Please model this.
Amino acid sequence: MIPPEIAITVRVNERDYVERVAPRLLLSDFLRHQLGLTGTHVGCEHGVCGACTVLLDGQPVRSCLLFAIQLDGTVLTTVEGLADGERLHPIQEAFREHHGLQCGFCTPGLLLTAKALLEENPAPTDREIREAIAGNLCRCTGYHFIVDAIRAAARGLQR
Amino acid sequence: MKPAAFEYVAVRTTEEALAELARDGQDARLLAGGQSLMPILNMRLATPRRLIDLNRVGELAYIRAHDGGVAIGAMTRQRAVEKSALVARCVPLLADAMPWVGHFQIRNRGTIGGSLAHADPAAELPAVAACLDARVTVRGPAGTRTLTADQLYWTYLTTTLAPTEILTEVWFPTAPSRTGHAWLEFARRHGDYALVGVAAAVMLEEDSVAEARLALTGVGARPVRARDAERRLVGRRPDDAALADAAERVKQVTEPQSDIHASAEYRRHLAGVLTLRALRLAIARARQAPPVTT
Model:
């Protein structure tokens, strides 16, 4: 027997959605398949790679380790919520400027992790940056440029 | 869809959760932070008929001074424990171990009660609980009972709780004065489960060891207290010979398993090395430790 779908209300990137979801629908699949927000990438689907990281009430979490049904009444930010129209977010701009991405698969998770880091710690040391991104795997292994980008973004945001 | 289908209920109180469990018992699973359960569901290693979501049970999320220690509600997020000034002051070992639990994105969601009840023998928090003789509060149909960490853990991923019971709180004693603590672990990558982890607590008196506590993770089916090594330290000056003797004893009593990540022999070697380092760090901290008050 397949349990019934249940209606949830969520605010994603400052837009309200009322959607019906099956209990077992992962937040990552809800965002991609139901809302069409395919910027959230799905890698390992068991919490290791960090590609599916989104902000839940401002805090970075793994969207593959949450059910959409749990999120009734919450506020989410995905990578689509970073840019202001055609204008990139300063962290995105820094990633572009410093070659902080190659294939781009890990990038959405890294951008949102970096955003949460810089909100809590506006002037992180390199060690703190590396600690913060330790849960986001980049298989192009471009970590040096990612650290450069986050450091530059921190300086840019402070100005 | 990754997990098998299940029915879902989000409860608001512990009472409601207990009522749901009493009805469904064996076929239901409690969903806390989900950072261990969700991978298991995604891989269909578990296929419960019903999930009882505790994430809206506000009464289980708190950190407060209680009875000469710190009581922490089971649904308190690990990140909240990590950032708590009360925990840092009164339970420094827990504060020391917390950054080693997964990554901060995991700790934003993971709960202290979930990690304790999941009983992964490579996890940090069960070993911290064993080291400090933490007590857990368990509620069930027959009422409330209190267990020590030693009574809580049975074997791999298995506690002594009945399917109708809920772990609702963990209590850690406030660290006594002149006591130093250290958590050290070795993992192939930061954030992975440790190959071996060691919790050490050492109380000094006149530069001799008045009390020593050692607990290890990753070397057995449940957290391991190295009581024999602890006893050998008491009354001795904590010099190199005494610490080496304790580390050697830890190596002798641990019986780790080999797996794809490390051989039993290598794990035993790590247990000795990490014990030595954790004891040194704990002793250095004990020498600087101010008196503690809750």
Summary: The interface with chain B takes residues 1-3, 6, 22-26, 29, 45-47, 50, 53, 56, 59-62, 64-67, 69-70, 113, 131-132, 134-135 of chain A (CB under 8 Å). The domain at 90-158 of chain A is CATH 1.10.150.120 (DNA polymerase; domain 1).
